[in-house]
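Bumping my old thread because nobody answered last time. Still need a sequence for this structure:
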């Protein structure tokens, strides 16, 4: 039982505390001692102006059971965030003074000549913890299991016999630190048929005088035992079965104060010393090296015994209240979680002028911001720039278009000073108003050989983006959503992948023409695959091109499904030729019927043009194109042996009407020179294939030779008419 302590017990109230509450909730209860039966600790609540000392009799995690208004303080109301600390109080110091003034080696002795049949006795002093009291009945010490204390009231489990002499010895100095008292209880054992002489203690006494030994409750004179380290040797030994109780008392060494130096009057209030309190080699030291005041060097050390600067702190610094330095210079507002430099306005970290961070050595220097939040839209780390045109701190005046709101700058050392290398500037971009703050971001870099930054890129309030390269300068003009400014023959925009240029836009050198502008190029393997040049050649190098379709099968394939418009239209305004084809393959031009897939016409590279009926449209041409010209031989039999036939098309291209013509298979039997095979599809044409099932008759040849046969028949008719006329004549 009694008061217990724990170093650096500091936290804050987690919720408001009324002046009548008997429990308090703190932010971190683990900083306070863990309480055993009958133990307590003192806690001080402080709002920066008023304070109250309370007695905590129980602790469950962060919840404290308290007795209000201790040590001459008054019960008060406190707010969440106010300090809650385990401080040294005047009452604790008075207990020290009373113990120092105690008689008989700091012991208080209670004597009752006789005991009555009662079980409870008020001895007039609270021993604190049960182990601090030794109870004797007729000179026999009583085991601690046979009695208990509640304050100054001693209660026996069973009432002493009437007339028994009661004596209680209370050592109050032990109450300063319960760890200075160790109690060991033994039951002697048989040792090889002899009494037990040696007993191992749980603590090592500083000397024999720090021991109190009892055998079966009878006090043993110091001549009856010896001590070596933590081994107690009772000279005569103890018979097996008898009890042995040993007290090891190592009192706190606070020195020997001079008479009159420590008085109750001084200890009940502030402690005032006429001179310097010197402990060891330092002017003031408590629990060295936890706290040291070096008066000779005007230094204070926390966590170190050798401070090297005016305030030398080794370890964490925790504040439960505000820290204010020169009011406006530095304010740490723990209530609102603010750090203020050069300003008294509220804000997370606010600077009236500048904050300089200097780091030496091969280490990183900077500001690290960490935020803990369980939601996506919760608190986040924030670098906050604020600007007002009012020159008075805390006053507001609207900013104007073009005003800089804040700048992030990267600087490098040129050997003499730090120069700007790159910057990001936040500016007003428009006319601000109530609830309206248009802004832009401006990116700037310093060119090689320059000493100041030049704007390279900006994003306007409307989301328009512009870039300037090659020293163009301002990019303020943003007529389009996405703008590049380039300068010089080598400037432009390039997109790379794995160090290979894929797309280039800008200017490109063209042989014989100098510098071209308006150039777009897509590259493959370092060579231009597609080039669009407003002042030069444009081309597609490799691959197939489809217009109106996604999977072209030919070098250029056009698909028109948009009505009656031409799929390909060539308008030759001042050119001699509309289209030009050259080669040595099968056909320069071919036409297929899209519904039937059948061949409708072709123009081969020899210059011969055929239609679907087989007519050749370049035979009846200029004499200068021909040689070995002779009259056609007799075609008389052609008309007789090649009868014209009537038929209907299976696809009913002429409806139900009859068509007239020659059947290719019949014609081939007598005149194979008039029949040829034709490809039916574009694929057939491209691959040079001919379909055996489809034949065509060159009807143009038949028609021309039929004319010759008709001319021959007319000549014969004329001869016959002349002969008939001669006969009639």
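Sorry it took so long. Here it is:
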């Amino acid at each position: 039982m009694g008061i217990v302590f724990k170093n650096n017990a500091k936290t804050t109230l987690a919720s408001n505390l009324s002046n009548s509450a008997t429990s308090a909730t703190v932010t971190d209860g683990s900083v306070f001692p863990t309480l055993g039966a009958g133990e307590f600790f003192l806690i001080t609540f402080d709002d920066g102006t008023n304070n109250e000392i309370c007695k905590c009799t129980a602790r469950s995690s962060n919840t404290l059971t308290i007795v209000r208004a201790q040590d001459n303080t008054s019960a008060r109301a406190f707010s969440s965030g106010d300090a809650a600390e385990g401080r040294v109080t005047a009452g604790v110091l008075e207990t020290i003074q009373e113990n120092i003034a105690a008689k008989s080696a700091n012991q208080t002795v209670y004597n009752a000549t006789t005991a009555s049949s009662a079980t409870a006795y008020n001895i007039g002093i609270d021993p604190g913890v049960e182990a601090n009291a030794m109870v004797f009945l007729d000179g026999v010490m009583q085991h601690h299991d046979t009695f208990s204390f509640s304050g100054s009231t001693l209660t026996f489990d069973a009432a002493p016999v009437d007339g028994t002499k009661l004596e209680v010895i209370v050592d109050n100095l032990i109450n300063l630190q319960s760890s200075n008292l160790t109690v060991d209880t033994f039951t002697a054992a048989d040792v090889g048929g002899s009494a037990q002489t040696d007993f191992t203690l749980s603590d090592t006494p500083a000397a024999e005088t720090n021991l109190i030994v009892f055998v079966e409750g009878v006090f043993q004179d110091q001549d009856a035992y010896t001590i070596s380290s933590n081994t107690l040797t009772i000279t005569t030994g103890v018979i097996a079965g008898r009890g042995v109780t040993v007290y090891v008392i190592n009192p706190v060494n606070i020195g020997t104060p001079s008479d009159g130096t420590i008085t109750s009057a001084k200890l009940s209030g502030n402690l005032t010393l006429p001179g310097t309190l010197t402990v060891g080699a330092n002017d003031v030291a408590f629990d060295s090296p936890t706290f040291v005041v070096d008066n000779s060097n005007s230094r204070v050390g926390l966590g170190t015994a050798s401070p090297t600067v005016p305030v030398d702190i080794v370890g964490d610094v925790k504040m439960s209240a505000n820290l204010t330095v020169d009011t406006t210079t530095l304010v740490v507002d723990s209530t609102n979680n603010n750090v203020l430099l050069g300003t008294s306005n509220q804000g997370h970290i606010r600077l009236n002028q500048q904050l300089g961070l200097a780091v030496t050595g091969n280490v990183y220097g900077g500001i690290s911001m960490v935020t803990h939040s369980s939601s996506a839209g919760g608190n986040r780390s924030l670098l906050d720039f604020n600007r007002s045109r009012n020159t008075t701190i805390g006053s507001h005046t609207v900013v104007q278009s073009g005003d800089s709101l804040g700048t992030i700058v990267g600087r490098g050392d040129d050997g003499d000073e730090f120069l700007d290398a790159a910057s990001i500037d936040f500016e007003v971009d428009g006319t601000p108003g109530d609830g309206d703050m248009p802004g832009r971001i401006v990116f700037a870099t310093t060119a090689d050989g320059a000493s100041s930054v030049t704007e390279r890129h900006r994003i306007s309030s409307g989301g328009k983006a512009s870039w300037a390269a090659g020293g163009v300068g301002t990019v303020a003009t943003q007529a389009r959503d996405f703008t590049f400014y380039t300068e010089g023959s080598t400037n432009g925009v390039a997109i790379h992948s794995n160090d290979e240029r894929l797309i280039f836009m800008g200017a490109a050198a063209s042989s014989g023409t100098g510098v071209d502008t308006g150039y777009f190029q897509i590259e493959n393997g370092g060579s231009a695959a597609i080039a669009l040049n407003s002042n030069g050649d444009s081309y597609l190098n490799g691959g197939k091109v489809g217009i109106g379709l996604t999977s072209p099968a030919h070098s250029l394939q056009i698909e028109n499904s948009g009505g009656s418009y031409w799929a390909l239209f060539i308008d030759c305004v001042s050119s001699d030729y509309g289209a030009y084809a050259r080669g040595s393959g099968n056909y320069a031009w071919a036409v297929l019927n899209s519904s039937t897939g059948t061949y409708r016409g072709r123009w081969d590279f020899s210059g011969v043009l055929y239609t679907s009926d087989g007519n050749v449209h370049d035979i009846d041409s200029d004499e200068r194109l021909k040689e070995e010209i002779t009259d056609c031989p007799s075609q008389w039999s052609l008309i007789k042996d090649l009868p014209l036939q009537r038929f209907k098309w299976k696809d009913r291209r002429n409806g139900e009407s009859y068509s007239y013509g020659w059947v290719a298979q019949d014609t081939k039997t007598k005149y194979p020179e008039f029949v040829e095979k034709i490809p039916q599809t574009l694929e057939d044409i491209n691959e040079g294939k001919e379909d055996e099932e489809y034949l065509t008759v060159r009807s143009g040849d038949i028609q021309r030779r039929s004319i010759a046969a008709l001319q021959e028949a007319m000549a014969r008719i004329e001869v016959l008419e002349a002969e008939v006329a001669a006969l009639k004549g």
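Helices lie at 90-100, 103-106, 264-268, 636-641, 664-670, 682-687, 699-728. Let me know if any region looks off to you.
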